[in-house]
Amino acid sequence: MNVLITAPSLNVNRNVSGISSVVGTIIQNNSEITYHHFVAGREDGDSSTSQRIAALGKSYTSLIKTFLKKSIDLVHLNLPLNPKSIYRDYLVFTIAKLFGKKVLLHLHGGKYLLQQPDNKLLNTLINRMYVRSEMVVCLSEIEKEIIEKAYHLKGVQVLENTVDDLYLTLTNKEENSNDLKVLFLGRLHESKGVHVLLDSIKHLMQNGNSHLKFIFCGAGPLLEELLQVTKTYPSNVIYMGVVGGEEKNKMLAAAHIFVLPSLYGEGLPMSLIEAMAAGLVPVVTTDGSMKAIVQHEDNGFIVEKNSTASLTAQLAYLAANPQIIQTVSQNAKAFAQTRFSVKKYISSLNAFYKSSVA
């Protein structure tokens, strides 16, 4: 089967994208399918608006040529439900349908995943894609229930994200160090709760938690705010830029805690399940499907959304009780190993493909 699959650039050294991580894992592990990757979205650091528009035009031209020259059986459209993504991917969806292609619509978080937009046009575009797709796939039972109720759908399928087995081997923590390393891995955007985390760091540093070391990996509009904090606390807050491949593995292997205090727009973050597989203790909010994965005080910790006090208290508690981290770390790794099997994921995905083209 020939499948055209959409995702941002798969260059992990230049791009921060959970969808790219998912798609990269799919392509690497699914030998039954011949994939054609369509680049949707832009890389971090892309410059002017005019250049981005030109790149989009080139992408859509390339998409049409692919449909003309290749025998594509199915389009696997990976969609984060954010305004720009909806407009961009609706055009991909429309072109696919004009060429008579069947579409598996795979949802990956976004502002409008769990709430309908007030904007009538956006709501219409979402609804059209839902209704005209051969299959709609989401990341958890929580999402399925909300989507089916909001849009009067039936048959939405659930496919939780998967994690490469490589991450299960990343256990090289520094046993002889008193430092407790906290890793943020993702876009430096308000939706990720970056402001909350930076405020929390200030409170923690002012209250004597100097053995906490915060490592930030990623890029985004809040980079300048982060850099100001690194200047204030250069020994405790480190910015590593965009990391991928071996560099990302080193960060995961070295860290003890993974923090993602998201405010909105999450699905089931790849960074979260990769961190759990590597044995990091997750400290997250209930946004998106994270609450379906992280069980408070068992395989991680849940903090209140948009609450500096809640996040600060949880991190201070772990800093004062490092013995708890080992137990929760083991639970997180065991959970990820059982729940996010690549083999099981690929088997389910291929079943969805076959059902979509039947």
Overview of this protein structure:
The chain has 358 residues and is an alpha/beta fold. Helix content is 45%, strand content 15%. The protein has helices at residues 18-29, 49-69, 83-98, 120-132, 141-151, 194-206, 223-232, 245-254, 270-277, 308-320, 322-339, 342-357, and strands at 2-7, 34-39, 74-79, 102-107, 135-138, 157-158, 180-185, 212-217, 237-239, 257-260, 281-284, 301-302. The strands form two sheets. The chain has a six-stranded parallel beta sheet, with helices on both faces. It has a six-stranded parallel beta sheet with strand order 9-8-7-10-11-12, sandwiched between helices. α6 (194-206) packs across α10 and α9 (270-277) crosses α11. The longest helix has 21 residues, at 49-69. The protein is globular and about 65 Å long. The termini are close together.
